Amino acid sequence: MLKKPWYKREINILPVSTVDIVTMTQNLAVMIKAGVTVPEALDTLVEQFGGRVKSILRRVNEDVQSGELLGSAMEKEVGVFGPIFVSSVKIGESTGTLSENLTHLSEQMEKDLEVRRNVQGAMLYPGIIISATLILGLAMATFVLPQMAGIFSSLDVELPLTTRVVMWLADKFQKNGYILSPAILILALAFVVLVRQRFMDPIVHRVVLKIPVINSFVHDINRARFTRMLSTMLQSGVPIQEALEIGGNVLPNYVYRMSVRDMRNKIESGESFADIISSYPKLYPKMVQRMIAIGESSGSIGETLAYLSRFYEQKVAIKAKSLSTVIEPLLLILIGLCVGFVALAIFTPIYSVTEGLNL
Description:
The protein has 359 residues and is an all-alpha fold. The protein has helices at 18-33, 38-48, 51-65, 70-75, 83-95, 98-154, 161-195, 201-208, 214-235, 240-250, 254-268, 273-277, 286-298, 301-358. It is 79% helix and 0% strand.
């Protein structure tokens, strides 16, 4: 196939909204269930949407009109329809359960979006407080402390250690403040970018799982995503080997991703899923192991995993609401210690001078 010239290629700056994909999937499922053919349904969707989604649907529709299957056409849209989506659509087309599979996919994406919003909401307040504290501290070090240092140096008293530390900082920022402040901000930003890189996952994700309070939250997020992903794919007719292979790439935490990839290798050797899951007690607790064993023995593992996913999604929602309440006192203590240190450094020499004058 000939590639388009670079000047004719579509420039995509922002990702496609998950809400748009969920809405499109729901509408497509309803129309197909009502007996509308896939090409007719895609024609209708092209008219409903605008922007980048419209152009994506138009390309998918053109491929389907030319004889391709829907799953194959969607697979070409890299970064829009993920491996879970494409695999479920392909299985649905081959088994005649496309509308049911699309419904499962829309439900999964809605739950994933809800979990993501809960996590973002929980991290918003601490992020704002930490950022504001850093900026305010740098502003004080650049503009306020140098003025105080001049006063302290004129005092005829022995300065305490806290004051000498503050004066040392003030001297550094007075001489190089306009370089140090941007440099610290850039380093902080670079650190955040660095820890978010894929090659840092093995280190960062293991450390996160050892941090008190946060680790249980991360565990529940990954358990919710794992059970939801697996239940959706199994209920869509995707073989468990393929479901685990895809799941080894979509889970947010590296440790969980590696466990799922290891599960795939073990299940190919003939072990039961219940026995495999029990070999990771720190990641999947007893309740998960027993529920999966019951589901596997009764032939309803997809429904069992769906129940577990709802359980963990509710836990994530509850913890997200309370996480700010837990983190807030820790942040206040940290800020209080910083403010107390500066206050002690400022008022101790002033008190010494005042006491000397009274004598």
